[in-house]
Structures are given as C-alpha cells and as structure tokens.
Amino acid sequence: MRIVCPFCGERELGEFTYLGDAKPQRPAADAGEEAVYDYVYLRDNIAGVMNEHWYHGAGCRAWLKVTRNTLTHEISAVEPAAGAGAAKVGA
Amino acid sequence: MKYSIFSLARAALSGHKNWKPTWRDAAPKDRYDVIIIGGGGHGLATAWFLASEFGIRNVAVLEKGWIGSGNAGRNTTIIRSNYGLPGNTGFYELSMKLWEKMEQDLNYNAMVSQRGVLNLYHSDAQRDAFARRGNTMRINGIDAELLDQAALRKMLPFLNFDHARFPVQGGLLQRRGGTARHDAVVWGYAHAASELGVDIIQNCEVTGFTRDANGTVTGVETSRGKIGAGKVGMAVAGSSSRVAAMAGLRLPIESHVLQAFVSEAIKPLIPGVMTFGAGHFYVSQSDKGGLVFGGDIDGYNSYAQRGNLPVMEDVCEGGMALIPMIGRVRLLRQWGGIMDMSMDGSPIIDKSPVDGLYINAGWCYGGFKATPGSGFVFAHLLARDESHKEAALFRLDRFQRGAMIDEKGQGAQPNLH
Amino acid sequence: MRGDQANRLNNGGLIDRSAPLNFRFDGKTFFGFKGDTLASALVANGVKLVGRSFKYHRPRGILTAGSEEPNALVELRSGARREPNTRATTAELYDGLDAASQNRWPSLNFDIMSVNQLFAPIFVAGFYYKTFMWPAKFWEAIYEPAIRRAAGLGRAAQVPDPDHYDKAWAHCDVVIAGSGPAGLAAALAAGRSGARVILCEEDFVPGGRLLADGGTIDGLPAAEWVARTLAELATMPDVRIMTRTTLFGVYDGGTYGAIERVNDHLPVPPEHQVRQRLWRIVAKRSIVAAGSIERPIVFAGNDTPGVMMASAMRSYINRYAATPARRIALFTNNEDGWRTVETAIAAGLQVAAVIDARPDVSPAHRSLASKGGFPVLHGSVAGVDGGKTGVRKISVSLAGGARAEVEADGLAVSGGWNPTVGLTSYHRGRPKWSDDIAAFVPDGAPPGMVAAGAANGAFGLGACLREGFEAGTAAARDAGRTGSTGSMPVADDAAFSLTPLWHVAGKGKAFVDQQHDVTASDVELAQREGFESVEHLKRYTTLGMATDQGKTSNVAGLAIMAAVTGKSIPETGTTIYRPPYVPVAIGAFAGHHRDQNFHATRLTPSHHWAAEQGAIFVDTGLWKRAQWYPRAGEKDWLESVTREVKAVRSGVGFCDVSTLGKIDVHGADAGAFLDRVYINAFSSLAVRKARYGLMLREDGLVYDDGTTSRLAEDHYFLTTTTAKAGLVMQHLEFCRQVLFPGLDVQLTSVSDQWAQFSIAGPKTRDLLKEIVDPAEDLSNEGFPFMGAREVKLRGGLTARLFRISFSGEMAFEISVPARYGEAMARNLMIAGKPFGVTPYGTEALGVMRIEKGHVAGPELNGTTTAADLGLGKMMSTKKDFIGRVMAGREALVAPNRQVVVGIKPTDKARRLRSGAHVIPKGEVPGPDNDQGYVTSVCFSPVLDQWIGLGLVERGRERIGEIVRAHDPLRGEDYDVELCNPVFYDPDGGLQRG
C-alpha cells in the first residue's frame, strides 16, 4: 500500500502506523460511561470504504484521515487531521 | 464407515471404489434445534459436541463456501496451552486435553503432534515474564519448563546464539504443545458430526435473521431459503462483525489480515514449534516437510485475505535472525486470513444481547488451537444456556465491566494484540 | 575438454561451444557449454533419470524446460550453500557446478524407498487420515518420525547461509513481466513513448519462446528481430531490462515484488557482491507478458523418464542443441504439438509416430508424415513401457478401439497451453474459461495491470506482438507518456486448433501432479469421499501444492474432477492463486537484516566512553545501555552492581539516562494540553519546577510515566520511559492533532537532541559545583527538590538541570546537547575524582529504584491501574483527562485487585526471583489461590538481602503477612513477607536534603 501524504507526497506503507476507524468521536467530559465504552470498544468494522486514522511517523508526524476500502485496500482520499500541519499560534 | 488400517487394506482390494463421502452433503431442512453459522473448525466442533456430549442431534452447520474455507484452512496449525491469565489458561488447557484424544474420539487422524512449543527469550525482562507465565501454567497443572541457553544449545544448535543482534538466552517450553493438520481437523469433526446426524450444508450463506415479535431470533435467511432454529450460534471468526450486524449488533472486534507462509518441502530440519522473542517470527515444519511460518498481523483493518510485502519481509528478517540456515530455503506460498481481533486479544463466547443468538468470536490469531475447546464450551452454552466454567470469563460485557483478559497489555487497540 | 555429450547436436543452439564447462551430477563428471541449463546439459549427456518422486519414489526424468518443472529437482551446490529442490531446468550451468539427486537412498538408481510402490494400493490420497491412530502414543513415537523422514524433498544446509542478499526499490511507469514477443513489443511501444520501463525476464537470455520456436517477425528471423529490438531498447536510457529476474507478486498501490538472481550462475558470488536481490518495484502500470505453459495429458506411465512436454523437447533441440531422444513419438491433441515433429526432423531425429487425439490433422502435417515415413495414429497413449532407463515402447488405443504399439525412446506430449494467470489472479481474482483455447484466461487484474499475448490467451505470434505493442502503448499513455510509438512489429498468426483431452483411461498409474504423486484415481477417490470443491481436492490430495505450485497439473486435476462430477470445467472452478510465482529464497526477503544487522543499534551519547571503561552493555529496545562497569578482581556482576549502588548511596555516581523519551511542549495551551493527557495537573505547575506525571490509555489503564518540567510559562519539557518514547510521541500527536486540535500547542521530539545524566548521591552537589558555573545557586534554597531550570556550565554551555531523584538520593539530572554527551561523561569523571565518583549502569539504577519502591516496566505492564501502582491519589477529580471515565469501571476499582507491594524472603539468605507466584501459607497452589507474582527483584546492598516488588491481591492491606513464593518452574518454594514497597528512606528525607 502507498499513501499520498498531503505534506510529504506518496510514501510507502512502512512509514505509516495505523490506528483505526476515524468515525468514533471522543465523547464530551460529561457524556457518561456508556458513551465512552462505545467510543473505546465498539467498532462498525466496515467491509468496504472506511475513514481511518493513520500516522506518518517516519515522515512528518502528521495524523491523517485516509479513505480506504477494506475489501480491496484501495485508497481514494487522504486528508490531514484537523490539527495537523502548521502551528495554530495565536489561534 | 470406520477408518482403520484394516478398512484401508480391504478398500485397496476393491480399488478404493467403496469409500463413502467423509460427511453427508446435506440439503437444509425446515427447522433445526440448533443452527451453527460457520462450517469451520469451531462450528463443526460445536456441532459434534452438541451431538455427542449434549444429546442435541437435530443440528445444522451452515457454511457459505466449502467447509474449512475460512481460518480453519489458513493458519499455521499450532496447538498449545501456554497462556498466563485467568480465563485463558484453563480454557486452552481444556482445549489441549481435547486435542489429546481427538483422533480416537473422531476416528480421524488429524496428525496431532506434540513436538513441543518453545517461546524464546532474549532479555532478563522477557525471562521474568515467561517465568510468571510458566508458573501460572504449572499452578494450573499444565506442563512448562524454563530452559536456559545451555539447554537450548544442546537442543537446537542451529539457533543464532553467537552472532545475533538479540541473542537467544533461553526459552519457555511446553512439550505437550505442537501442531495438528488443520484441514483434517475440519474433516474429522465433519465426519464424526455427520455420522451422528448433524447436517452439514455447504454453499449456504446466511443473509439475515428471522425474529419474532419479541425480537428473539427464530432462524436464519440464507442463500438456500429460510431455515428455522431454536437457537442460532455464530462461529464465523473473521466475519463476526458482518454477521452480528444482521442482528443489529456492534462488536468489540476489528477484522485484520494475518499472513502466513510455507516453504518448499525439505527433509526434517526443525523439530518443534518455536517463536522468536525479539521479532515477529514463529515456525514449525509440517509432516510434509514445508516450514510453516508467520509473524505479526499487517496492522490495518482488512477483509481482503491477502497482505503486503513489509510484513513478509519483516517475518523473513526474523527468521533469518533466529535461524540463519534457512536463507536458501525457498518461500513457496503466501496467504492471508481475516482475524477477528478483539479489544483485549481474547475471545468472546457468550449469549448475545439478542435472545436466541449466541456468539463465538474474537479469536484473534489464536483460533486454531482453541478449536476443540471452543466447540465444547460453545456447545455447553448452547445446550445449557450458561457458560462452561472454563469459558466463564469470555463474556461480551467484560469490556463494560473492565474485566479484560489482556495477555499483551496493549489495551483497546486490536492491531497490537 | 567437452566430454562425450553424445546427445549434443554439432550445430545450432544458443550455446557457446568454445566455452565448455564441467559439472558433476551425483558425483559423476560431465561436460556442457556456456548457455546450458543443468537440465539441457544432462539431456546432452543422455542422462534420463534425474529424480525420485515424493511418495512412491518412482524414477523421474525431465518434463519441461522452465520454471514449471515438477520432477527434475536437485540439491545444487554443497556444504553451507546447498540448495534443495533446485530446478535443473532453470539452473544455469557454470564451471564446477555440483548437483545431486534427492529423496533417494542409497542412490538414484537403486532407491530402497521405491518399495513404497508395492504399497501404492494403500498409499492413496488421504490414506493417513484413516489410520496411524492407534495406539495414540505411537503417533509421535513411531508413525510421525517415519513419515517425516520419508517426506520432504531435498536437504537444506544445516549451517548459516554464508551469502548476502540485498533489497532495493525501483520506480517506473511500466513494469513488464516476460521478454517473449509480447513483452518485447510492449517494451518497444512503451519505451518509444518515453515511458520509464522495467522489463523482468526470469531466463538469463531475453526472447521467451522465440528462443526455441523461432518464427519470422518484420520479415526477419526471430533471433535477428530480438537482437534488433534489444539494440533499440538499449538506446533508451529509461528502459531497463533485467534478466534472471522473476516478477513474483503484485501488492497494493502498484507495488511489485521481483527477485533478481544476481550471482546464482556463478559458483560463489564475487567478493562484496550479493547472491540475490529483492526488488520492490513501484509502477504506474504493469503488463503481464509471461506467456503460457504447455500442459500434459494424463495417461498411464506418463511419468516415465523420456516423456517430455513437446515444447520442452523443442527447447532442448533448438535452443540447446541437445536431443532428449533419438527416436521420438508425439502425443498431441492440438496443432502446435506438431512443431516438435518438425523440429525433430530438422535435427535429424527419427520420428516413430504421431498419436493425435483429434479426428483430423491438417493436410500439411499429413504430407509431412508421409514424407517422413511415420504413421499418424488417431487415438491416444494408453501406456508406456519403460522404467528408469527411459521410454521403450508406447501402447496406443486407436480411435476405432484397436491397439497399436510404437517403439520410441522419447515421447513428446502436448495437451494444449495454459496462459500464465498467476499474476493477474493474485488479488484473489479468478480467471475465466475460454472455450476457444480450452484454458483459463485472465478475467480482470489488480489495478493498473493488463495481460498481453499468450498470458492473455492469444497464442499466435502476430497476436502476441500486437497485444504487447498495444498494451505497451496504452500503459505509457496512462502514465502520461505520449511519444510516437512508431510502427508495430508484425508476424503471421499460426492457426491454433485443439480438441480438449485431459485424461486417457487405462491400466497403471496416471499422474496428474507428478511431484506430489497425485494420480487421476486419487482425484476420483477424492470426489467419491466428498472432496469435490477444488480447494478440498487440493487439500485432500495435495494436488498443486508442490514446489511447482501445480503449474503443469492444476488444470488437468480440476478437468478430471469436472469429468467425474459431470460439471463443466468453469463450473468446477480454480483454486486461489497464491504468490510468489516461483519460490523465493527466504534470505532474499530478509536482505541484510540478519545477525548483528537484524535491527538497528542505537548508542547513547556516552557509549564510546562507557566502552572504554569496560562497561557491559544490555539491549534495551534498540539501545545498548551500560548495564554495569566491572572492575578488576570483581567475581561477578552482583559484586560490581553492589559496589556501584554503595558508591552512589555513600558518595556520588552518575548514569547515562539519555534513552528516556524527551518532548518539548510549547504553546500558550501547553499546560492545558498536559492536563488532558496526564492524570494529574500540570497547568498549576510553577515555572522552574518539575512534577512526576502518569498517563493512562483511554481504557483507563496506565500507559506511561515520567517527569515533566515547566521551563517557561509556555514551555514544558516532558520525559517518557525508554520503551515508550516513540509511542508516547505518537499518542501525544494524536491528542494534539485529532482530539484537541483547538489547543495552541506544539510538540517537538528532542530525545536524540539531549544527552541526559543522572547524578546521584550525597556528594552530588559537590560534584556539580565543579561542572556548573559558580554563579548558579545549587543550594537547597536556590535549587530545591523538584526544581528545574537552565543553567550555565563552566565554559559557557547552557544545560538543563532538574533536581529529580529515581534513586532516592540527593540527585540531579543534567541535560546537555547530545554532541557534548561524551564530554560530559569524561568531565564528570575528572571533576568527580576527588569525591570518588562512580559511573553506574542500568542494574544499579534498577536496584535503587526497587529499594525506593518506584514502579517501572514490569509493573507498568499495560494491565495495571494507577491505584494498583499505589498512585491512585494522583488522579485529579477536577479535570477531564484521557482514560478518566474508563478507569472507573467496576472491575478496575474492585477491592481484590493485585496491587504493588514490597516482598522479601523471611530467610535473609534466600534469593528471590521474578516470576515466582504468591500463594497463601498452608494452601495447595491452584488457580483459585494464585494471588499474584513477583514483578521485580534485586539484591539490596542497603538491606543486605534480596528484595522485590510484586503485584499481589489486596497487597497493601496485607503488609506483614507471610506468604509463599511458589516457583515450580525453578523448583523453589519459600516464605516471603509482604512489606512496604519503599525499602529505603521511606519518608524521602535524603532526596529533599
């Protein structure tokens, strides 16, 4: 597999680390145990197109959102995580 | 049809024309007491134990392809019971004891071969962790030996002791561990279950569940029509999430690809099973002569049943680091299976939140060795509606309760287990 | 100097008669020529028997002339370089080549195990599943060892592989597999378009079937066209032709695996050169022009030496000028097979007969037969009379039912051709059936790949050129290369007609898979026993699982299965195709990553200095850390370590702790960020102060710990454990970029930028004063416990100084830029001399942390909570943090959890060992009273006894209780006391003083 890092260009699989489904959102602090359990443990485990978190650890250290098909491994889109890239100084 | 050297010799006289099918290729009936989804080792073992131990013979095993076409037919055939945590230790030993009498029980030679499983250690910290685990085994009545380097030099002189980046310092040996012929396990259970009246229905894909007004599962919809059932058990590791989704369930499971490799057949080179402790590599040699080896999962969610080069290279690097004499042995075949990677690395055998549906899932890359034990405890659950004592910790709600069984201590990150 | 070579033609062939090579087979010396394979040289020398089969030990000869060979497998080379199962048909001959037949004893000619043939009626497919079950113990003791010895083929070397392997990357627009007419035409078109092209050819000479079958292209003899084409391609700087290179697999993202046999054609790789090289080729497009493989017809005795594929016979005669027989017969079901007759006649061989399964043959061939004076028998081969000396007589059943006999010493067989569909099917694609050629052809392919020519089912020479050229043009276009492709090479298309014939029923064993001894009746038996699915067939009979991956047998096997089940071949289907296309040496996948180079080695900044001191190093992840510093006269490690600990506790010592992960955290929200990732508060930490922090995973269990210092309002310096340095960085980046993108915070890994030393002991301040600029106030008031700030060193260098203590002593940690690390170690030694400074290693570090009850790796094992570690009070209730919610789950706060406690043997002379379990006194050990275990141990010089930490059920409530340390693995069982884990200076006065 090869991932086109928005910062570094197309790079080989070995430069990246996988985390998993990017859909679950960390619940708010007051969301309760059930919501956090769901976030931490339950997965759609999609057979098909999935948005995933990958980390370009051997490159720019950006976290990426990769759209990939788990049946074919085809990658159709890559975008940086919300906080990847330039510093938000003064934001 | 009884198998023995005598029946073979008799058959030879008639040119082997009189053998019957190893199992009946059944057509679905309208209704069964129990339907098992998944004609792999676990599903077929469950059916056999239901019939032989729990007296439930009106059972069907539904297989979407050919029996054994999932992970039962694409693993590295290792059997062992060298686990360290409550829940796992007792369960895998139950399974090991069932391996030890499987062939006589089933009248089928599954080539269960107790040539030993050796985990190598390369540091003091690793030795200490192995000592802890080995003592757990011994306290549970399981054989385990902690060997030092001198013992290993005698036993396995070909290991890289002297030029290694991470020299072998010793190992934890379970002599009763070993291998079994994976396909034969499937066929043996199919053979024996079929003899007891279990219907094995191939090319029958489950496409949905039928449910009554209370939501209780009353049967399945399949590519060969609706089939009613008193209870439905799923044993479809690799596809658990997809099947559970048909009942509206989300599971603490991700599907990952694990590759395995086999070399060309060579004369006996490696005696038992060994695992490298400083890299991702484990190996045994099949009775046919091929080195059967593997390593880590590829690390990303996948249903593709095939992997990529980086892991293949990583595994071979581990192999060469540990056993540098295999450099000129050629890798013959590479394949990939879909692993039900659970959130703590341990399986789930439990009633599901949906009445009438029972789950056997989350085997990670350890499903093969569990085959007989899994079949037994799942049959127990289906027959008695309560967990067998050796499976009592494999509950689905353990993640809600915080009672994980995490041998590797990696937490809710399936690709690290 | 050229030996006998009785079967070598005087003229022709692509061999160099001026370069004779001697070689040995089974100890006997022969000669061949440069350009030969081992197989062609054996053919030239009249050697027919080359191997014994897997199960029945039947004599076997050479069946093919390529990588599909099932029979002619040898052990090539000897000693450490012995290579089992090497195909004689692809092994390039070199001077001094030494090969031996395999799977026979005592000799190839007289093989005791051929007695197995007597048991053949019992040794049918799957017989072993039905027996060897009684008594159960006999499997490991008797049956299996015998089976294992009998199984396998060649013998691997039993010593380390002495050769080197390389791994490389290549990038191109178009990668092409195969250099036959389709491959060369594809390269021509793509190259002329301006594309970057890599063409992989597994043979050592480009040309594919053109080398054996010739033909006319662009009005030129094929050989001339090949030469002209290669010359043109050589002028294109972006076209690279790699011979001796097999494209074996296709992976995601247009990544291809190829194996280059760099020096296998030499006895030993030249100095500093590799044996083989693994290529990872990244290509925008790929063209599979790998041709097709002629398939056998299954008939009784089809494994007799001297039975050979018709195309292979042409290869040996035309390419190698070696004649496999003097008087040949041909058994064919198609037009193409007749070319072997033409070749044989041209070479002056006798043709005994053609047995053609079709009702008609072309007028041209009929007249060829009458001119040549040999009969054309319409029918099929019913049996072969012969043995290890080769074919003698062939019995034929004629179409009308009559019988005929043909005397010949060679039988060429052509059952049609199977396109090479492996590469196109490796992404679990299934080929489709083509009735036209009665074979499977590619049906789609992985992204970016197309098949062309014979690999695509187009068998005519003209069609191969056309498909290759068009595929090359299209692939280049797709890659954005649009140069003029010039004119397409042209050739005529010979007609291809075939009447499918898979299996001739007859008496005697008819082999489908010759290498695995799978017969037609085994396939029928499998069907009878319910193994009808092709995957069951494969697994039950082992059909197609041999080293040739069934290249000559799979389709025939499933055709026979189709016949007995009454299904069509496409309904029966194929098994899954699995890479690699040819077996690849494990060493090649490993490359240089073996021995000391298996993984990288990281050295601490003071490594070379420590080595000078004679330090013993320990592997910690990739790091080499000084474990202890032995001194002359010390009898073992324990004596050295004890000395180091005592020196620190009574004077001063230092230790390189640079391996800790170090992260600079900058930004206005740095404190807020740390509040979310640590369980305790950091926004409230004063500038110039350090604090111990604990991180959880989101599941509430402890992830990592370390001290983090606030160097400025918006600047923290965070440390991690050595083991988790990279992972914590990844985790924090995830928190920053994904979970909390709104925070103004930046992370910089500075692990490698700072050399860090722990300086500990009551005389620490005395030593530091010699190092640090005198203007810096190091007094307890000026630099209190848990103080942290930049200081100037003598000489002007700026360092970071932290008053933290892992040892429990008065201690500092000092960081200097990594390039000064070694100098720092040397200066500490010089400056510390008056105070008896002692360098200490990780063992002494560990002893002092255990004496102090600090947790480390063995306790932070991924299953412990903060409370388990005795750090539950650190969990802030005033803020949210990673892991807060899940940490509250019932089983994680249960009262009976195993928690950290101190452990010491009641017998002070007793050695305590990690991994011993804790069992209540007076109870029989069992799973129900296994209450925990010893996690860390050391010999404590302070207490003068072995002590340890453990995780023990309700341990903190049981201080003072005597329990058993149960260690059956090491045969030990002794009483220990559960105690306070802080063995040394429990109120911490020393470190604050």
Please provide a written account of the structure.
The complex is a heterotrimer of chains A (91), B (417) and C (993). Chain A has one helix spanning 33-41; strands at 2-5, 9-12, 17-21, 49-55, 63-69, 75-80. Chain A is mainly β. Chain A has one domain: Folate-binding fold (2-Layer Sandwich), CATH 3.30.2270. In chain A, the strands form two sheets. Chain A has a four-stranded antiparallel beta sheet, with no helix packed on it. In chain A, strands 1-2 form a two-stranded antiparallel ribbon. Chain A is globular and about 40 Å long. The termini of chain A are far apart. Chain B has 417 residues and is an alpha/beta fold. Chain B folds into two domains: 24-108 and 181-251 and 344-416, 3-Layer(bba) Sandwich (FAD/NAD(P)-binding domain), CATH 3.50.50.60; 117-176 and 254-342, D-Amino Acid Oxidase, subunit A, domain 2 (D-Amino Acid Oxidase, Chain A, domain 2, 2-Layer Sandwich), CATH 3.30.9.10. Chain B has ten helices and 18 strands. Chain B has helices spanning 5-13, 41-52, 88-106, 124-139, 149-155, 182-195, 240-245, 309-322, 367-384, 398-401; strands spanning 31-37, 59-62, 78-79, 117-121, 145-148, 170-174, 178-179, 199-201, 206-211, 217-222, 225-234, 253-265, 273-275, 282-285, 290-301, 330-342, 348-351, 357-361. In chain B, strands 1, 2, 8, 9, 10, 11, 17 and 18 form an eight-stranded mixed beta sheet that branches. In chain B, strands 5-6-4-13-14-15-12-16 form an eight-stranded mixed beta sheet. In chain B, a hairpin with a 5-residue loop joins strand 17 (348-351) and strand 18 (357-361). Chain B is globular, with a radius of gyration of 21 Å. In chain C, the strands form twelve sheets. In chain C, strands 8, 9, 12, 13, 14, 15 and 27 form a seven-stranded mixed beta sheet that branches. Chain C has a seven-stranded mixed beta sheet with strand order 17-23-18-19-20-21-22. In chain C, helix 3 runs parallel beside helix 5 (222-234) and helix 20 crosses helix 21. In chain C, strand 36 (689-696) and strand 37 (702-712) form a beta hairpin. Chain C has 23 helices and 50 strands. Chain C has seven domains: 16-128, 2Fe-2S iron-sulphur cluster binding domain, sarcosine oxidase, alpha subunit, N-terminal domain (Ubiquitin-like (UB roll), Roll); 165-292 and 420-478, FAD/NAD(P)-binding domain (3-Layer(bba) Sandwich), CATH 3.50.50; 296-415, FAD/NAD(P)-binding domain (3-Layer(bba) Sandwich); 509-572, Arc Repressor Mutant, subunit A; 602-658 and 754-849, Probable tRNA modification gtpase trme, domain 1 (Gyrase A, domain 2, 2-Layer Sandwich); 661-749, Alpha-Beta Plaits (2-Layer Sandwich), CATH 3.30.70.1400; 895-993, Aminomethyltransferase beta-barrel domains (Elongation Factor Tu (Ef-tu), domain 3, Beta Barrel). The mean pLDDT of chain C is 96. Chain C is α+β, with helices and mostly antiparallel strands and 993 residues long. Chain C is 22% helix and 28% strand. At the B-C interface, helix 1, helix 3, helix 4, helix 6 and strand 12 of B face strand 6, helix 2, helix 11, helix 12 and strand 30 of C. Strand 16 of chain B pairs antiparallel with strand 30 of chain C, so a sheet runs across the interface. Chain A: It holds the Pfam family SoxD. Chain A: One of its GO terms (biological process) is tetrahydrofolate metabolic process. Chain A: This is Sarcosine oxidase subunit delta. Chain A: InterPro entries: SoxD, SoxD_sf. Chain A: GO terms for molecular function: sarcosine oxidase activity.
